[in-house]
Records
---
Amino acid sequence: MLGDIGTLVLQGTMISAVYALIAIGFTMIFGVGGTLNLAHGALIMGGAYVFALLSRSVHAAVAFPVTIAVIALLSWGLYQVLVRWVEENVVITFLATVVVAIASTEFVLYQFGGSPIGMTLISGAVNLEPYGINARTRYVQFVGFVVSWLAIGLLWYYITHTDDGRSVLAASMSERGAQLTGVDLHAVRSKTWLIAGALAGTAGVILGSTGGATPLMWLNPLALAFIIVVIGGIGSIKGSVIAAYVIGFLEQFTVTFVGHGFRGILSLVVLVVFLLYMPQGLYGREFAHD
Amino acid sequence: MISTILLLGTVLATVTGRLGDAAGTVRQQLLLPIGQALDRLLAPIDRGLEPAANAYNRSLGRYFGTMSGLQFALIVGSVVALLTAGVWAPMVGPLVGGGLLRTLALASIWAIFAMSWDIQSGYTGYISFGHSVLSGAAGYTTALLIVHVDPGLSIWVTASVSVLAALVVGLLVALPTLRLEGPYFSLITFVAVLLFYRLTTAFSSLGGIPGFGQPDVFTWDPVMRYYYMAIPMLLIALGLTFMARSNLGMILVAIRENESAVSAAGINPTKFKIWSFALSSIPMGIGGVLLVGFTGNVDPDTFVIVDNSIEMIAMAVIGGMSSILGPLGGAFLFEFLNHQLFHGYSTPVRYLFLWGLVLLVLVFARDGLFRMIWHRLGAVGGESE
């Protein structure tokens, strides 16, 4: 029992860190552009596949940053080529990004086939049996945890301590207000997509290293991002991080004590409760309508 | 880094701007004259057909919308073509890859899905990513009844219980979520599909991945099978068009355009959103039952997966959202391209083409192809619709 709790805490902490990475990019794009980017999961999948390809020829330490850069550019390209032309219509943006996501599955199936592709960012695992925790935690999970907090820290610094970052924050609070103070909205949105892409790429590499890359791996992260963002409050980065930990622990709890098949169900119950009684989420605010 | 990217963006923007100019020139020099020539060619035909259309407009126009001569001809022609497909499709089929009747039957089922999606999502603007849950509920109910209750149950019993199940599941999804405004509804429906999929694969009593093979197909005769699918489809199209053209449809569109205005007019939008979802669940259930009768197998891959929900959306988008008949045409076009024209390619390539097409329609022709054709035909006579 005590061992179970130890496992729960450890695994929950690791998983939640990755969930936070997944959700932040999603919430940022929603906060700034009012766009729900349903292709966010596809970018995560892209991260896994690009890393799998690169790590065949170069060392993982090189492939990791290159992957992040590639996915950031892909995300930026998605915005420039497709989303910016339709973003004024929420419904069309919705549909366009989800079609991109589905098409990416077909592309991956066509290019790599349906079987999972294994990859490792860093191999090996640490055995915690002597300490009473019955799980072999892999080094990748530790790396994921560290990278996640590194990314969150950098993002926090960028958003709160640089002019560039503060303009992103301003645009997410009130578009008109930001424009009146001389913020170039288009540039801010482009930057947001770039950052969200980098975060998605990072998450993709870590998810791929723990579970392998498959053509449908974008679905679950996307659903998780939804749930986390609603609970945390749409557009709030702090809320997303906290909600990621809530959901991560909740899922780990169900897996440990209830059973694997019920993994998402408890999260969904929490989601519905939040939607009914607290639709603004933990740290959400009313949008400043102009 | 950022500045180079921004520079690239500027370059890209200018290039696309130029492209826009070029498109404008093409429109001026090429498309406009063609359109005018077509107008001149078609206008006499339109006038010739006017009396028939007017007779219809006077009698039924109130219920299903008025049409010009050409539009009337298009509708009558399509209905006749669909009703006589059992005769001409086996002859035309070999020219387009064979198996045309099967494709048409499948397209009929998908047309039901696309139209049902449209009356809810297209009209109210509350996009559902989870409509496959509704058809899935119907399909699984049929299978469970046959497996666990009595294999000899008549189709009338299983079908009506299944449609009821779809309605119940629809209300379960709609009641808590449709009170909310904005994107939450879409998110919930999306998560609902994933959850339903997980349930079907996690519990062996729900058949797991292989699903249930026990339900029988309606018939093996391709001609009969086609009519089993096409006639309910036409009836549903009729019913939904009637609903969409009534006051109900007007309120649904008003919800999409300005929900607070609807509230301000003393109409409860939530009530009507739930109505539209219920209205959409019933044909979804019928479609689910037909799909069981078509495949004879109920499994997550044919019934539940998210791709199914997105596919019906794609059909509706290609045809033109919020027009009922647009999604019908979209479904036939989609399935025809998928199973006949792109017949020789592997599945991923076919779908890549199709999703590409959907994206093009979304960006360049938001109203959809069939709605575009429809309005063009309506404008031939000189008056724009």
---
Amino acid sequence: MTDTLLEIDRLSVDYETARGDLKALRDISFDIRKGEIVGIVGESGCGKSTLISSILRLTAPNTRFRQGEVRFKGEDLLQLPERKMRDLRGSDISIVFQDPMQTHNPVLSIGQQMLDIQHRSKASKAEKRARAAQMLGAVGIPDPEARLDQFPHEFSGGMRQRIAIAMALMSEPDLLIADEPTTALDATLEVQIIERLQELQQQFDCAILFISHHLGVIAELCDRVVVMYAGAVVESGEVREIFHDPKHPYTRRLIDCDPGHIKERARVLPTIPGEVPDLANLPGGCIFRDRCDQAMPRCASQVPPLAKLKEGHHAACWLNHEEAAE
Amino acid sequence: MTLLDVKNLKTSYGPVNVLAGVSFAVEPGETYALVGESGSGKTTVIRAIAGMAPAQEGSVKFDGQEIRGASERTLRPLRKDIAMMFQDPVGSLSPRLTIRSLITEPYRIQGMKDRDLDAEARRLLEMVNLPSHFADRYPYQLSGGQARRVGVARALALEPKLILADEPTAGLDVSVQGELLNLMNDLRERLGLAMVIITHNLNVVRHVADRMGILYLGRLVEEGSTEAVFHDPRHPYTRCLLSANPEPDPDARLERIALKGEPPSLLKRPSGCEFRERCPFAQEICTQTPQWEVDNGHGLRCLAPLHQGRAA
Amino acid sequence: MAKSRSELGQIIHGVARDPLGLMGLIIVGTIVFCAIFAYWIVPFDPVGMNIKSRLQGPSWTHLLGTDQLGRDTFSRVIAGGQVALQVALPAVFGAMAIGLTLGMIAGYGPKWLDNLLMLLFDTIRSFPTVMFALAVVALVGPSLQTVVFVVMATSIPTYGRVARTQTLTLRNSEFILAERSMGASMTRILGVHMLPNIVGVLAVLAAMDIPTVIALEAGLSFLGLGVKPPTPSWGALLKDGYSLIRQTPWLVVGGGLPIILATLGFTFLGESLRDVVDPKLRKQR
């Protein structure tokens, strides 16, 4: 496929620790096409952060890439020399982090920081400044020209996150990675940010990898969804497929758990009892087996593969296999 | 008798008046939710009630006793009856203590040393459905959900009459959030607790609160039974909050009421209705200052209230 | 997450896993061992004179040669280590204990007390250590105790300030708020909840401070303000070596090398300790 932008292919990543290898990512495969918004959903410990740092190759020193490739425009990023990787970060691939209060350098004005990130451009200082103001305007900061001279602490959390988005989009990247960009914000601001992202995505025609644990936001924003659990992809597909016809028990129950779903006051809210398995000491078979109410003998012995159910819908569960129905 | 009666509570830090007169009451066994964005003053309200933030004016009556501005010595015995829960599940546990020490801390503080603390620890862990071997663990060895249960166990140790909980579900995964809310609902019924929960998560409020108040810039703008507020929000701000709640359904991509801009600075409170500049329904009359009016148990501070069924 | 091991055991294990930390541990261990068993280890009496064999170079009998009075330098180095630790350990731990207490009170107590203590700390710090030492020595005469007192008094503010800063950061953390909401007394909050979270940072500081104090003791002895001759001290050795450097360089080596080694050893140990006790790094292990 020619329009594939990023392709994660059977990626496995471990962390070496005193307790043995922590299998943070196992056999991750999915892709992002040009101009598409892909959401990654998962709860704590699912490997979201490891995945992002692996794509950007900003991993901790005890990280070991065990197998697989991260192909960006056909090139395996894991094999790229560091210098080339540095050129890629912040120009072809940009990132917006979770905490807007810690993203900006507190002692430099916003304008200065926005000039600094244009260091690769040959434009004059005035042109760069005009571009910075234009970007601030694009993310909805009123009176951008004047606000360029202000410092990060003079902006609210919501504004800072929008500035972070403006800075990330400045280089017109092909891929924007948004790591829980709305988690630290109030619901009202969260909505403003996702609406803004939608507009900007149209305007700049970049692909977005949007990581969140908030199902509502994912449903609202994304074209396709990847569901992760304990370091593995358990399901991926078109957003409607995932939310209306989930094929993995974890996805189904995760959606059931979201209280935004339940309109009337419930006596007892649905939950998923149990804990995420220890990644340093993984049980055999399906990783979700211990918490699954539909587990079968087979789930204990064999790891279910991420199988294609139909065009644009994959799931890793034995329930979807013919034999299971019998 | 009303358990907690807060009247016209005001707090300023220098020129910044964070609370501009907050009044609400909680009956025994009732759960009251205070909802608002960051900067609305919700955290200050519960800290001021517990004597941990200043409150220059107003009154806080607990069980009929005035406790605003009371000395620590006066408050001490009351701390048995009022327990607090803080936002960060792990961060609100003293990091170098074992879980056993942490959940039996209230007994030690209140000088109940004659109790069998080991037995109490086991009882409390069982009450929040944690295995008893957790007693030997340290906070950093717990997941957010487990740490939150420890927080609940500690809050319940002395069988309080009132729990003040700051964002009890913050930082929890959805699959765990439900467990915690179920647990709290269950314990509340069994023990007849009253709770004040502050949160910006409306999805949580719907399932736990009997009544709720909406806080904007340190003032209540709407208050009523949870059902009434959810089904018939009268204040435009409430309506905006309710609509800013993305649903886990791609086809529900919303008929949303856009809230303009961000909350104004507390140093520059707008004239007239303080929500006016952000209000999608603002009218000319809104330049006047709205008063708090109560109609059939439903309180409102708005000169142009919305009516049921009136869409955006 | 081996909870079977004690906290101290875990820390030592953590330090030993880091190459620099292991080196520090070995050097410091050797120094401490030599200091404790000095009088069993020394081949000669460190104060015994032997005019016949004065100013000798290194040999198998005298590993580091002898000084102008024929005393065995190696023996004096070993015995000097004992003196160095006799000054450094009580001075540093005394300063740490007092600084910790005052710093926590300053950080948690009322504003006026904070201001008062800070004023006191700044006043002490504004005296140059050597001037202060000169004044004290002039008053009570040079002795080991004097050096300990001077060093302790001048380093209390450093510990006090760090403890105060840590206390200020911790006092608004949620777990302290939670303790307050349960009605915990100030002594309980400081002693049970703050102290264990602050003491690690100060212990690191102390480990890194010990070589400074050893150097200071050497300096004071060098100036004749420290321990009285003939008690062996690294500073006194250095002083003798300095005046006799034309005749033999070995005395300077004998006085200087242990100071350098002690500095490196304690610094390595301190740095490695800092990484190990840092709760943020600790969580990942």
